Amino acid sequence: MAAHLLPETLPAADMGGAALRAFFRIAEAWDLRMVDQRKLLGDPPESTFYKWKREQQGTVSRDVLERISYLLGIYKDLQILFTSEEQADGWVHRPNDAPLFGGRSAMDRMLSGNVADLYVVRQYLDAQRGWG
After folding, report:
1. What are phi and psi for residue 97, nearest 5 degrees?
2. Does residue 9 have a pLDDT over 80?
3. Domain that holds residue 19
4. Could you give the 3-state DSSP secondary structure of residue 29?
């Protein structure tokens, strides 16, 4: 007897809308400029970016999904680490003396355009939570 099972992971095409909606909520919470939003998503073409923003759905690449995944993790870590949303959302913009940031903000690091920088910020916050 065959059972109908859901795949363990959904194809990227099936996750695009939910990922984009989550990303744009985070971008609003963090008060990000459009140019910074595009940079965090890996610099998609302007027309694609504005279509995603307008429709809150679309097909995204695995790279974009990976970027959004790191940003979701960063957002979640901050909500856990700080007692208020204002503190959590503001942290990404505040200068940080940790060696990883060298006196600059986490957002400065994340805006380098490299997905690896999103990863290291996520790893740093996971360590602060005791998960690293």
Report:
1. -85, -5
2. no
3. 13-128
4. helix
